[in-house]
Structure formats: structure tokens, C-alpha cells
Amino acid sequence: MNRFEYHDGQLRCEGQPLRDLAARFGTPLYVYSAETFRTHFARLAHAFGALQPRICYSVKCCPNLDILRLLAACGSGFDIVSGGELFRVLRIGTPPDRIVFAGVGKTEREIDEALAARVGLLNVESAGELELLARAAQRHAVTPDVALRIIPDVDAKTHAYTTTGTRHNKFGIPLDQAADLYRRFGASPLVRLRGLHLHIGSPVSDPERYALGIRRALQLIDTLRAEGLTVDTLDIGGGYGAHYVGDDAPSADAYAQVIVPLLADRGLRVILEPGRSIAANAGVLVTRVLYVKTSGRRRFVVVDASMNELIRPALYSAYHFIWPVDAGPRIPQDWSPNQPFDGLRRCDVVGPVCESGDFLAKGRRLPPVQPGDLLAVHTAGAYGMAMASQYNSRPRAAEVLVDGGAVRLMRRRETYEDLIAAEHVPPE
Ligand SMILES: Cc1ncc(COP(=O)(O)O)c(C=O)c1O
């Protein structure tokens, strides 16, 4: 489900023509639908309702403060991985018990900040981190709640760069070491071990992959409980899919059908950390065609968005559906974006950045476009603006939130001055 729909040949977000938004705020422009965020959150909450989970939106995928406020109002907590993300969620007034903090390389400063904020759960990823945390907790005179992030050794069958749950990845603690660590700190007065955390990758399109990981976690939980240790929390991470190519991702219900029976009646507080499944198709990137040119048999559509705005195609060979915002008379009225028609031309959609890896699509069939036309790059709400850079000294794009009739600029376009703002360092 998303609220980007064509009416009268115009792509609209919750009824607002993207052409008007581009004229008002310029391009490249991220446009988000508030209703789509809310609907995805509600579907997940409903699907997993039997477990009464704490849903902690994964801030990294789309961290704008307005998006965080919107999800907090839906009842979401937050999954964070840095001091910067902690700063964001505290800035919107998140109660600390709704924050879970993962991350393979937390610094001492970040641990201090988490303890000072009384973060609800620290997901620890190594023995060294737990030792450092225990010392810091003593200094702060607090007893933080902790889960151990385990390596379930499950291949999520996703891109190598976003697979996180095998023993070849840097994340988490091998099961045998996690058991020993749990025993070592189980009775510690410095930290309160509450349970386990796993996140196997992203996106995970086979719900059975979760089942494999969760069964391994449950085995360890049973062992530890049999030894008299307290284990009352299981954080099963994120990674639930989003529709990139048509309706290609399992629904929230499909994940829940596999996961809920495994965890029902286990006496566990369950935490979910969804990001992409909530944010991805709540956002599109609107870009303007600058030039169209050919080289041999290749046709290049040069647009004003680039790997600066959306690095996923360059980084993961990710597919994003791209189509003109103004579909105009060129396509039939009853057409829908998944339904190709005659007259399409194969082209590469490329950006202005000085890298051959700077493309949004390769060999894509598009209607004929000309300079000045607007294109919408779909399913760009997660890991889009969040990964934006200023490479080539290009100011970052603006972000707009559409909420019913209301349009809100939730991040202004950066200026050239923004590019050098952090370089105004006084001489020593
Ligand atoms: C620990 C953890 N939780 C949750 C997520 C969110 O994943 P997704 O956006 O695919 O739901 C990530 C993503 O990298 C993660 O590392």
C-alpha cells in the first residue's frame, strides 16, 4: 500500500500533485506520505498483535525528526545505533524506556550518553563492549538493562552487504560465546541481563529465515533458563521487506504467521525493529531531466538526482521503479505503473556525479522523456535521504511531508554555505 497514485495523468501524493511540489520546493526532492507511514506501522502492529510487541522503528532508515514524531504518535519506540540517533530520539521527547541501542562499535562516549539518558535496552555485540558497559554503569551508578546480540548463523538470502546474521559478518556474538557471557554476567550487580537480540539482514524475503534464527535463540534461552538465569526479552530485529518490483515482498501477516506461533506463550517481551517495511514506499524521490543523449547504442537520461540522493542502486545494485511524474497523454488513462506499454525506450538514468557508478537505473524501459520532465523514483523512503552525501560538493536535497491536505517542508534544501559550515574552524 502507498499513497502515490496517478489521477488525471499526474502522479500525486495523498492527492497533492508532485509537479506542484517540485515547482514549489525544487528538485531533487524527497516527498513522503504520512498516511503510508501510519498504515505500514498499523499493519505490523496488527499482524504481531498476539505478542503485544514493543515496535521500535529503526531510525537509521529515515531519521527525519518529523517522521520520528509521526511514528512516536503511532506508539512506536526507536531502534538506534549511534549517539547521533540517540540525540534525535531524545530531541523529540522519546521516553528512554522506548529506546533500544544496538551497534557493533559503540564508543565509550556513546555508552556514557546511553547510560545518562537511561536508555531502555542496550543490545551488546561483544564481550569487550559488555565489560566496558559494566565499568561505565558503575561510574554512573545505574544498572542498565542489556540484551546480547547473538549470531544465529542464518543466511538471510539477501545482498551480501546487508546480510548480518552469519558467522562471517561483524555483528553480534557467536552462540557458544553468548552463553558463556550470559553466565558470566547473569548475576552481576552492574548490569541486568534481560535477553537476546538478533537481526539477520535486510530485506529478508523469506519469513522462514526468521524462524531459523528465532529457533536458535529459543534454544539458547531454554538452556540459560534451565540454569536458573533470567531471560525475559527477545528482540528479533528488523528486515521485513518492502515492495520494490511490483508486489514482491511478503505482507506483515506473512511474517507474523511464521513468527508469532514460535514466540506465543514463551513468557518473553518481544521487540521488533522494522525500518524499510514502514518507510520505503512511503517516499519517492522526484528528479528533473537535464539532458538526453546517446552514445553508440546507449541512451542516457541525465537527471538532477544522483548517488548523492539515492546510493542504493550504486551500492547494492538495487532496483527502484522510475516513471514520469506527468504521465500526460502519453499513456492510457487506465494504466498502472506495473503495466508496461508500447513506445518505451531503453535507457540509463544517470546523475551528475563524476562516477560511472552514479546511476539510478540501467537499461530501463521508459517513455520518451525530454529535458525539463520530472521523474519519480519510487520506494525511496528508506535508506534514501538517510544515506545522502554531499560528494562533489552538492548540497543535500529537501524533504517534504504530505499529510492529507497539509504539506510540510520537513528539511530545507542545503545551501553552498551549508557545505562549508563545519569548516569554519578558528585558527589554533
Ligand atoms: C539492528 C538492526 N535492526 C533493525 C534494522 C532495520 O532493518 P530494516 O530497515 O530492513 O527493517 C537494521 C538495519 O540495518 C539493523 O541493523
Could you characterize the architecture of this molecule?
With 428 residues, the protein is an alpha/beta fold. It folds into two domains: 4-31 and 280-422, Lyase, Ornithine Decarboxylase, Chain A, domain 1 (Beta Barrel); 34-276, Alanine racemase (TIM Barrel). The chain has twelve helices and 21 strands. The chain has helices at 18-25, 34-47, 65-73, 83-91, 108-117, 127-140, 175-185, 207-226, 252-263, 276-279, 312-316, 416-420; strands at 4-7, 10-13, 16-17, 29-33, 54-58, 77-80, 99-101, 121-124, 145-151, 173-174, 192-197, 233-235, 269-272, 283-295, 298-303, 322-324, 345-350, 359-366, 374-377, 398-403, 406-411. The strands form three sheets. Strands 4, 14, 15, 16, 17, 18, 19, 20 and 21 form a nine-stranded mixed beta sheet that branches. Strands 5-6-7-8-9-11-12-13 form an eight-stranded parallel barrel, surrounded by four helices. A hairpin with a 2-residue loop joins strand 20 (398-403) and strand 21 (406-411). Helix 8 packs parallel to helix 9 (252-263). The radius of gyration is 23 Å and the shape is globular. The mean pLDDT is 94. Pyridoxal-5'-phosphate (PLP) binds next to helix 10.
